[in-house]
Amino acid sequence: MNADTIASGAPRRLATFAPFLKWAPLVSGRNLRADLLAGLTGAIVVLPQGVAFATIAGMPPQYGLYASIAPTIVAALFGSSWHLVAGPSTTASLVLAASLAHFATPGTSYYVQLAMTLAIMTGLIELALGLARLGVIVNFISHSVVIGYTAGVGALIVATQASTFFGFHMPADHDFLPAVWDTISNLPRLSVPETIVAFATLGAGALSRRRLPRVPYMLPALFVGGLVGAAINLWSPGAVVVVGALPAELPPLSAPSFDPHTWRILMPTALAVAISALNEVVSIGRAIAARTEQDVDINQEFVGQGLANIVAPFFSGYVVSGSFNRSALNYESGARTPLAAISAGVFLLGLVVFAAPLAAYLPKSAMAASLVMIGWGLIDRRSIRNIWDMSRAERWVFVITIFTALFIHIQVSIFVGVALSLLIFLYRTSTPELRRRVPDPMSPNRKFTDVRPDLPECPQFNLLRLDGALYFGAVASFRDSMRRLEADAPNCRQIAIVMTGVNFIDLAGAEALALEARKLRARGGGLYLIRLKERASEFLARGQYADMIGRENMFMSKTTALREVYRHLDYAICRDCKLRVFVECARLGKQEPRDDAAEPLGSK
Amino acid sequence: MSALISPQRRQAIVETVLPFLAWLPMVNRRSMSADVSAGLTGAIVVLPQSVAFATIAGMPPEYGLYAGMIPAIVAALYGSSWHLVSGPTTAASIVLFSALAARAEPGSAQYVALALTLTLMVGLIELALGVLKLGTIVNFISHSVVVGFTAGAGVMIAISQVRHFLGIDVPRGARFHETFLHVAVNADQIVPAIAAVAIITLVTGIAMRRYLPRVPYMIVAIVVGSLAAALIGAYSDAQIPALGAIPASLPALSMPSFDPGVWRELAPSAVAVSMFALTEALSIARSLGMRSGQHIDPSQEFVGQGLSNIAGSFFSGYVATGSFNRSGVNYDAGAKTPLAAVLAGLLLMIGVPFIAPFAKYLPNAAMAGILMLVAWGLIDWRHITQIVKTSREETAILAVTFFATLALDLEVAILLGIVLSLLLYLNRTSNPRLVPRVPDPMSSGRKFTHPGPDLPECPQFRIMRLDGSLFFGAVSSFTEAVRDIEDDTPDCRFVAIVMTGVNFVDIGGAEAIVAAARRFRARGGDLYLIRIKDQTRDLLERGGYLGEIGERNIFWSKTDALRSIYRRLDYDVCRRCNLRVYVECVRLGKQEPQDDDDEAPRAVDRSRR
Hints:
- The complex is a heterodimer of chains A (604) and B (609).
- Chain A has 604 residues and is mostly helical.
- Chain A has 27 helices and eight strands.
- Chain A has helices spanning 2-6, 9-17, 20-23, 29-57, 62-66, 70-78, 90-100, 109-131, 143-165, 176-186, 192-211, 218-235, 260-292, 298-311, 324-332, 339-355, 364-378, 381-390, 392-408, 410-430, 472-488, 507-522, 534-542, 545-549, 558-566, 571-576, 583-590; strands at 86-87, 321-322, 433-439, 448-450, 461-467, 494-498, 526-530, 554-555.
């Protein structure tokens, strides 16, 4: 952020459009070899993933591979992270399918064209956000929303793949409830050979994950699934349906639609895909940066993703986003620079030609089984448990987000979650607690603690702590708290507020403070502010509110404040009071407080 | 049936359905006489106002009077405040006009029907907000929005009255600049007689306000204006249009429309009107409650406002809300209970049949003169200057709201203002500052302060204070700030964060702290948290984050933290360091930091000071 503000216009623009100049010098001998090796690994891994994710998206399988070539290269060239690998991803694919299925039949050429149009729209949105440096908006997607949303995506994937898993061979559902219902009602008609292949795949995947954590489990799982499927097909040909050989060719050139009507109907989806893709990119970027010490410039990453999605539809790709597991794999296999991701794209070009015929041996149910594993993996059970334990607010956000994702629509769920979490946040900050505090006699240095039945407050002097900024939204609650206090302790006319938790005060807050001060003064008491933060006190001074409250009533510590306030207490009450709330009370009981200063007691 | 309901529950139900039972016991002979005199004053004040405000709203004048009758009585009975007087108001009237003028000809029967429907919708929204106890949402309409909006409304009212003030036929619904242009081009069409009456009224009003502030200036100004018009009319042949006779009848029963199409069309306006009406009513009730010592229950006030508008829509009243000046008059006239407002409404009902025929002599120009004065009063110069002087952000909100009222629809303007102030607030809270702190050697208690050229920071251990809650929106700013620490001072491996300003932490924030702690640990250092608030600590504990941060790394005071941390500092660096940032540094320079057992009593001593 700092570098941005210092850098003048021209170099920054150059950095935006040619970010690869930054790492190009690093490409040499050893780095180059490491990158090429990581690239090869990446290309092999993306083969099954690309096909699988295209299946989720309702696209013909080869499009998943195409999406991993040109867009991946562009994103690596123009992005900020050195390890992030872009390409087809689960969430983007699922949102695409859930939205486009309403407009076209999956797999048809119209559907493909819509998908490509969606890609360029998403790309333009991402590019605009990146150039306008609006990356911050992603910050407002809270943790609970992300967990709820991805869990919703995971559950939807599992539910929609179930029919292929059990070999029902029926048109896929794209909504959660119908998918679950169809699966349950069709269970008696399951195809035994396909279910065997699916479970073999699952078993192999689970085993590989446990025994060989370093190998991407999809490869051995699909290998075993393919072997079992081939064996069954040898025995009774046609029992297990396969994906079928893919066209062994390079991505054909293509073009999205520029029909304004199409753009209008796709707009909400494009927005949702862009936001969720960006969220993915940001979390991957952060996760990797946490290990590599590289500063990921979110906005630059948006530019890279945007350009990748703009390029995608011209090379038969569909919406791409950062892939969490491929990026992690890329880093773990030793990638040094984005050259690794670029070479993965180039290697894939060559691999497609050799690997495409292999799809003829790939059973559809094995593919579904691997997707079920992926979907299950998206449900982050540890984080969900955490959310559950943490607080009611987070629980609600999570529940509403996942509910919307599953039962209303996946693409609105992220917005509903964000709106809800913002509302909860606003509600929370608009009702800051005004806690009544008393010294804790048990603590050696007399820390303050909340009022308890065994720790009474001084009848004349209340010490409060305000936990929250005093801004326009919180003023009403602050005033209500003060009124409640007034009703509760009508004789207490001296009130001090500890302001350490008040990070800022706005105009309405300053007025409220001035008003309370005036009110207390009219009753013969006073309002004291303890430990105001610099920014808050500067603000008060600027608006002359400091004078209205009284500069002499602002203290840097509780001790100095207490010393001043004693002089204003009613000695007659103190003498008969047995509570001894403050240390100073002991002394007060013995002698006239007047001795403390020459001036007479407060107003009484 | 009643046996099934516990006494407390029955009590609560009675309190909700008949809230006036709460203050009825307060009514005695003394309060009664005070209330009667306040009610009489109120009825006299509302008479000219309601006619004037109906003019603003584009309603036939009698509807203003009607709005001051039944709705005012219902609001007084069911509201929470003892002094709030409801009825027609300037701001609600101009919003109504701006919302409906495009849909029907002002003054026409269709316009009135739309206004009644809008009133019913506003009432229902208000009632719903009250019943659902959603009174808090009004709190998000910031002061600057209200000030900007009312100032805009004032200008709008002034513009709408130019035609009556000068006698020029300005096209209805003309915007700010269009009106000016029209007047400038057609200056020769100004009718001197009309302008004279208007100016005489205006000057009388200003003079009354200045020299006899206790007398209701409106009535005097209107009487003077009417007399002037009669005189000018008698001695010249100038035509001075008058308001026309008001039917000398009590409010007729009326029926709002229940056409779903109309409702859908009016929904945005209804939302905006109710938001503003509630803000107005609540802020007046609160400021009077402040003076009278009464505690205002916002939800009950909303219920009262809602019922009053629902009733109004069936008794020919248009949108009513709390009136600032009438409530102030009511309080100043010594009203003790809501009975004063009820009496004002009743007296108005009794008085109207006698007064109404006089409206025949009331010139439009005099009314326009009064409204110019009202419009001027809506521009709150004192607060505007204060806002401009104090804060750039609030000034921006004020300016945007003000110009939006002039350029866009009023209801859009208020929503725009709310959204803008929330965005600015979110922007602020999502960028909490992480401020470096060092002990101030000049302070006796070793308070911490900002580092400066003469107050360097320790090269190995920095203390930062986090000024803001760690919620999801603030996480990335926090993470970036932590990263900046690493970049700025790569040798500093130990960082303590003072958490007094962190009022709460959510999961995202908790994970960010854990991530930061891990990063520091990975670099051979550590992250410490000082003075976490109890709630925050509970939350971290419940989420299992406390273990990951390390219980040992959480301290109750800076002193405790320092004592524990400086043992882990690199002794070699300390020995060569001349900065002596902390008091402990003096000792560190002399001996190995490990054996500090004799340190304990001194530290306790210091904190007890």
